[in-house]
Amino acid sequence: MSNVVMAITVMFTLLFLTPLFHYTPLVVLSAIIIASMLGLIDYEAAIHLWKVDTFDFVVCLSAYIGVVFGSVEIGLVLAVRMTVCHTSKKLLCVTITPYQQLNITY
Questions:
Q1: 6-15, 19-28, 39-48, 89-98: which has the highest mean pLDDT?
Q2: Residues 99, 92: Cα–Cα separation, whole Å
Q3: How far is 49 from 57, CA to CA, in rounded Å?
Q4: Quick one: angle between helices 54-69 and 72-96, nearest 10?
Q5: Which of 66, 87, 88, 89 could form a disulfide with 74 if both were Cys (CB 3.0 to 4.6 A apart)?
Q6: What global pTM score does this model have?
Q7: Distance CA 67, CA 75 (A)
Q8: Residue 62: HSE in the Cβ half-sphere, 13 Å Cα cutoff
Q9: How many Cα atoms are found within 13 Å in the side-chain-facing hemisphere of 27?
Q10: CB within 8 A of 83, min separation 6: which ones?
Q11: Span 78-82, mean pLDDT?
Q12: 54 shares its domain with 79
């Protein structure tokens, strides 16, 4: 029942209060969105990620910046591309290193 009340409230709000926001500058609406986004960041987890693995923190930060200034798709592609490049660079460094005798026991 609470979902029905919430849906009706949202419907009336959109019908009658949306015209009032027509004259609100886009800067004010952007500031409201940015202020609400600051509450979505888990600062303790970001600090812990920085201490554990700096590259993962950089990937996390770049994905966040990609989402904020672009779209969800841009942030996701940016994070995946950074991870793949970093991983392939590690694999490339392993394959280029001089041959070392491997001690494999069966």
A1: 6-15
A2: 14
A3: 6
A4: 150
A5: 66
A6: 0.55
A7: 5
A8: 15
A9: 0
A10: 59
A11: 90
A12: yes
